[in-house]
C-alpha cells in the first residue's frame, strides 16, 4: 500500500460517503469543512483518480469511489476490531482459556507457548487438559474446551472442526539405554518383545498400524496399550524393558539427555501433522487468537520442534 495513505484519509472518505455532504461529515469528525475537503483532495491525488463529484446537492461517488469505499470501510472496521480486541485483553482479568493438548504437545510446545502468551495476558487463567485425541475433540465440539493442540485425526474424528498445521512429527520406538535390542533396525527384531502400543483412541494408532501393514507384520501380541508419558517412561526404564511406541515430542528431552534411546528403525510412515483444532463454525475470541499466535510463533522458532520432523 502507498505509505502516503493515512488513517485520516480513509476516515474522512468514509464519513463523507456516508453523510453525502462535506459539512455534515466535517461536523461528525470535529473538523472544519476546508480541512476535510483538503483531506479528500489529498487522497485523490495519491490515488490518481477522482473518488467523488461535488455539487450543490452534495457529493456523489464516482465508479472508482464506489469500489474504493468497500475496501476503505473494511480497513476501518478491521482497525476498530483490533483496537477493541486490545481493550478486551487488558480487561480480561480472571478470564479463563481452556486448552486441550495431546501428550507430545503438552510436554514440549505448550510450555513455551504459554510463556509467550502470559507475557501479553498475564491475568488470564489457563486450564490445560491432557488426553486422547477422541476425548479432547469430543470436549472441543461440546464447548468444554476452547481449542485443542494435537495431531490431525481421521476424517470421522474431525467433523465440525478446523485444523491449522503447526509442524510435523514422527512416532519413535524407544528403549532403555541398556536394552538388549537397542541395536534393532527392523520391526521383525522386536516382535517377541513386550510393546507399549498406542490405544485405539489415540491419534498415532493408525500411523503405527499403517507402518506395520507396510512391513507385512501383524499387531504385536505381547503389548500394553497406553500413551501416558509418565507410565510409558516408568515402564520402559523398569525391569520388564518394553519397547515403547510414542510421539517423539513426548520423549524428546529423554532422548536428548540419553535417558532413552530411539531404535534405528525407519518410522517414516508415522509422520503426521500437529496443529490447532477449533470449532469450525466459530470466530475465535481475542484470547484464543492471541494464544494461537503464541503457538504458531513457538512452533516456528523452537529447535525442539524442528527436531521432530
Automatic annotation (TrEMBL):
<comment type="similarity">
    <text>Belongs to the LysR transcriptional regulatory family.</text>
</comment>
<dbReference type="GO" id="GO:0045893">
    <property type="term" value="P:positive regulation of DNA-templated transcription"/>
</dbReference>
<keyword id="KW-0805">Transcription regulation</keyword>
<dbReference type="InterPro" id="IPR012787">
    <property type="entry name" value="TF_PcaQ"/>
</dbReference>
<dbReference type="InterPro" id="IPR036388">
    <property type="entry name" value="WH-like_DNA-bd_sf"/>
</dbReference>
<dbReference type="InterPro" id="IPR005119">
    <property type="entry name" value="LysR_subst-bd"/>
</dbReference>
<dbReference type="GO" id="GO:0019619">
    <property type="term" value="P:3,4-dihydroxybenzoate catabolic process"/>
</dbReference>
<dbReference type="GO" id="GO:0003700">
    <property type="term" value="F:DNA-binding transcription factor activity"/>
</dbReference>
<feature type="domain" description="HTH lysR-type">
    <location>
        <begin position="5"/>
        <end position="62"/>
    </location>
</feature>
<dbReference type="Pfam" id="PF00126">
    <property type="entry name" value="HTH_1"/>
</dbReference>
<dbReference type="Pfam" id="PF03466">
    <property type="entry name" value="LysR_substrate"/>
</dbReference>
<keyword id="KW-0804">Transcription</keyword>
<dbReference type="GO" id="GO:0005829">
    <property type="term" value="C:cytosol"/>
</dbReference>
<dbReference type="InterPro" id="IPR050950">
    <property type="entry name" value="HTH-type_LysR_regulators"/>
</dbReference>
<protein>
    <submittedName>
        <fullName>Pca operon transcription factor PcaQ</fullName>
    </submittedName>
</protein>
<keyword id="KW-0238">DNA-binding</keyword>
<dbReference type="InterPro" id="IPR000847">
    <property type="entry name" value="LysR_HTH_N"/>
</dbReference>
<dbReference type="GO" id="GO:0003677">
    <property type="term" value="F:DNA binding"/>
</dbReference>
<dbReference type="InterPro" id="IPR036390">
    <property type="entry name" value="WH_DNA-bd_sf"/>
</dbReference>
Amino acid at each position: 500500500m502507498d505509505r502516503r495513505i493515512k488513517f485520516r484519509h480513509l476516515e474522512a472518505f468514509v464519513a463523507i460517503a456516508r453523510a453525502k455532504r462535506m459539512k455534515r461529515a466535517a461536523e461528525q469528525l470535529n473538523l472544519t469543512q476546508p480541512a476535510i475537503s483538503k483531506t479528500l483532495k489529498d487522497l485523490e491525488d495519491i490515488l490518481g483518480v477522482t473518488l467523488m463529484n461535488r455539487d450543490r446537492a452534495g457529493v456523489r461517488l464516482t465508479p472508482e469511489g464506489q469500489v474504493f469505499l468497500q475496501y476503505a470501510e473494511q480497513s476501518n472496521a478491521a482497525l476498530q476490531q483490533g483496537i477493541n480486541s486490545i481493550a478486551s485483553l487488558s480487561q480480561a482479568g480472571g478470564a479463563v482459556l481452556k486448552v486441550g493438548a495431546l501428550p507430545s504437545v503438552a510436554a514440549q510446545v505448550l510450555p513455551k507457548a504459554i510463556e509467550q502468551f502470559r507475557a501479553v495476558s498475564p491475568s488470564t487463567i489457563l486450564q490445560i487438559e491432557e488426553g486422547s485425541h477422541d476425548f479432547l475433540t469430543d470436549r472441543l465440539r461440546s464447548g468444554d474446551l476452547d481449542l485443542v493442540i494435537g495431531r490431525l485425526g481421521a476424517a470421522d474424528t474431525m467433523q465440525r472442526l478446523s485444523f491449522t498445521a503447526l509442524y510435523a512429527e514422527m512416532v519413535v520406538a524407544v528403549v532403555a539405554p541398556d536394552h538388549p535390542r537397542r541395536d534393532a533396525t527392523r520391526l521383525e527384531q522386536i516382535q517377541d518383545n513386550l510393546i507399549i502400543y498406542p490405544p485405539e483412541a489415540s491419534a498415532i494408532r493408525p500411523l503405527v498400524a499403517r507402518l506395520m501393514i507396510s512391513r507385512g507384520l501383524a499387531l504385536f501380541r505381547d503389548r500394553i496399550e497406553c500413551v501416558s508419558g509418565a507410565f510409558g517412561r516408568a515402564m520402559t526404564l523398569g525391569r520388564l524393558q518394553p519397547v515403547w511406541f510414542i510421539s517423539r515430542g513426548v520423549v524428546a528431552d529423554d532422548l536428548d539427555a540419553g535417558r532413552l534411546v530411539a531404535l534405528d528403525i525407519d518410522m517414516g510412515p508415522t509422520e503426521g501433522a500437529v496443529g490447532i483444532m477449533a470449532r469450525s463454525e466459530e470466530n475465535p475470541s481475542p484470547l484464543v487468537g492471541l494464544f494461537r499466535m503464541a503457538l504458531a510463533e513457538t512452533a516456528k522458532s523452537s529447535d525442539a520442534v524442528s527436531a521432530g520432523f
